[in-house]
Amino acid sequence: MKLTLAVLLVLFVCPVLSQGQNQTQVQGQKEDLRTLLQDASYVFNRFDEEATGLQVEIDHWNVDASSKKNFKEEVSAVLRDVDVIKPTLSQLLSKSQVSSVDLLDVYAEVAEVGSEVQGQASNESNWGGAAKAIELAQLGAKATVLSAHIEVLLRHQIIVQERQLEVCSRQPVSSSPAAKH
Fold first, then answer.
1. Residue 176: band (very low, low, confident or very high) from pLDDT cuts 50, 70, 90
2. Rounded-to-integer distance, Cα 92 and Cα 103, Å
């Protein structure tokens, strides 16, 4: 009798404890997600500010006109992409859950900004001073680290979704009365 009660108690308590841990983990992930999205917003806003300066600075570089044009087109392309994602990001900040597709879009754009800014920072010899290159490198590093954090969260979210899908696919399909004819 005592053994049966102990088994029943364990069966009852373990799922409740597990559920509590899962709720704590989900809450932590939501807070992490919100922080990451806020950081992405910061990176995009900083890139907007820097892109304007980049395009003006590139005109003064001691490189041929076609290189200047290419550099400016690269910055403009990333800036256009950032302008497209920013309204979506604002909407995501108000949501408690973000789809993997939306999170992937944010991740891709943060990674693109990081790559572009770091690439421009590597053109230090064209800047006429290291201060601007350092500023760009710092923004690029922040974007690169942020994209890695978003990637980890995205991978976790996809793993959870795959597990949920696997559980659902194992459940037998119940036939409803309407399906029987």
1. low
2. 9
